[in-house]
Design the sequence.
């Protein structure tokens, strides 16, 4: 679905590469989480996946990014956008309309769809993102952070992209808004047949959702593994400024002290069970 081969990117005027020799293959239907410290290249990689880089940014680009057979260097961003929908951490930066309904159907109208098809997609997107129909006439700018993010996701989902990229969707949200978005991600994994790529630094809930975890550090991929193996070396992650949930760190310490010999748990519930067993 996505093939990244020997990718290098340096922004115009920058001395250092933002991405360095990135090789990556993401298959159809995978749920992939990309993590890494600030300035590791995560958002830059996302923009390479939908063609914004190199088409809309000045810089030095080497290698290839192939999206469902399309080389991003040779295609218009508008064509790639039909395959790849991207939602950034600040939903307001993507809002173009005065009401929630207008925002969600904006892309559909630009696609030239008929009225019936637009209505079907609108209500499907509302259902999957758990947005009430009562919100349709509200200005999106008046909503809470979590509600704004859900509207931004709904607007992209309505266009039915085969690849959905969410760039730190919970980074600007309070605990309630974060829970709302995690619930949407769970629903997407269950019922939306697409490739989902989430860039995130809060790993409490993502660890149990992802099929693969990728660590990007200083523009390079250092780890690309299933969650069970990715979190097996907690110290490696901490040394590269990736902070697993506290329960993982605690169980890892128990294991290092010989009190536990199993794998690192991916959920709080499993961790509590392990702690009860170990600590009595």
Sequence:
């Amino acid at each position: 679905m996505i093939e990244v081969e020997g990718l290098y990117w340096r922004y115009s005027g920058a001395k250092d590469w933002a991405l360095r020799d990135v090789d990556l293959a993401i298959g159809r239907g995978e749920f992939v989480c990309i993590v890494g410290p600030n300035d590791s290249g995560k958002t830059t990689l996302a923009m390479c996946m939908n063609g914004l880089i190199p088409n809309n940014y000045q810089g030095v680009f080497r290698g290839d990014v192939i999206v469902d057979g399309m080389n991003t260097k040779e295609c218009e961003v508008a064509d790639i956008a039909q395959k790849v929908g991207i939602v950034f951490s600040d939903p307001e930066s993507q809002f173009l309309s005065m009401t929630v309904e207008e925002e969600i159907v904006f892309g559909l109208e630009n696609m030239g769809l008929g009225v019936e098809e637009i209505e079907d997609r609108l209500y499907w997107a509302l259902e999957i993102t758990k947005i009430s129909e009562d919100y349709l006439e509200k200005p999106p700018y008046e909503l809470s952070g979590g509600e704004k993010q859900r509207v931004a996701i709904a607007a992209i989902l309505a266009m039915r992209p085969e690849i959905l990229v969410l760039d730190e969707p919970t980074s600007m949200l309070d605990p309630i808004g974060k829970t709302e978005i995690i619930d949407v991600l769970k629903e997407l994994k269950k019922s939306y047949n697409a490739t989902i790529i989430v860039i995130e630094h809060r790993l409490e809930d993502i660890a149990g959702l992802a099929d693969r975890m990728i660590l990007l550090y200083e523009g390079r991929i250092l780890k690309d593994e299933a969650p069970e193996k990715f979190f097996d070396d907690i110290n490696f992650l901490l040394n590269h400024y990736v902070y697993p949930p506290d329960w993982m760190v605690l169980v890892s310490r128990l294991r290092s002290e010989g009190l536990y010999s199993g794998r690192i748990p991916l959920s709080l519930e499993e961790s509590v069970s392990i702690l009860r067993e170990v600590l009595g």
Observations:
- The chain is about 40% helix and 20% strand.
